[in-house]
TrEMBL record:
<comment type="similarity">
    <text>Belongs to the 4-hydroxybenzoyl-CoA thioesterase family.</text>
</comment>
<protein>
    <submittedName>
        <fullName>Thioesterase</fullName>
    </submittedName>
</protein>
<keyword id="KW-0378">Hydrolase</keyword>
<dbReference type="InterPro" id="IPR050563">
    <property type="entry name" value="4-hydroxybenzoyl-CoA_TE"/>
</dbReference>
<dbReference type="Pfam" id="PF13279">
    <property type="entry name" value="4HBT_2"/>
</dbReference>
<dbReference type="GO" id="GO:0047617">
    <property type="term" value="F:fatty acyl-CoA hydrolase activity"/>
</dbReference>
<dbReference type="InterPro" id="IPR029069">
    <property type="entry name" value="HotDog_dom_sf"/>
</dbReference>
């Protein structure tokens, strides 16, 4: 299996700083792999909340994760400040694909990287629903350039 092309800070317009916690470390002394997904989830939702005004408590729609992946490139551990870069890889009718990367403080290349897909559904009936136009317009500012 070949290594993925490393993402760099220049590919991202939104960053969320996160302080690793004591509880993030596992018995081997590094951040446990499942915690990286927590960082991804926190950063993707922070982009929605901070930049689009998405209200996770009262919105008529919610985003459900239907796909995610992570490539682990360098160990993280407590105590460490990290930054999670978030970009939008694709905007569909009812889905968003986030491209994410975790950077150690001061490092230009990702320590971990992956993706995360939200499908937006009606909060009550869980049926797929279109991403609101106002949200779509804001998120387009974070689209990765076409390759």
């Amino acid at each position: 299996m070949s290594k993925p092309v490393l993402k760099t800070r220049q590919q991202f317009k939104f960053f969320l700083p996160i302080q690793t916690r004591w509880a993030d470390n596992d018995i081997y002394g590094h951040v446990n792999n499942v915690t990286y997904y927590s960082y991804f989830d926190t950063a993707a939702n922070s982009l929605l909340i901070q930049k689009t005004g998405f209200d996770i408590h009262t919105s008529e729609i919610i985003g459900l994760v239907v796909d995610s992946a992570c490539s682990f490139l360098q160990e993280l551990s407590f105590p460490e400040m990290i930054e999670v870069g978030v970009a939008i890889g694709k905007i569909g009718n009812s889905s968003l694909r986030y491209e994410l990367a975790i950077f150690k403080q001061g490092q230009p290349q990702a320590a971990a990287q992956g993706h995360f897909v939200h499908v937006f559904v009606d909060r009550e009936n869980r049926k797929s629903t279109a991403i609101p136009e106002k949200m779509r317009e804001v998120l387009e500012q974070y689209l990765l350039p076409s390759e």
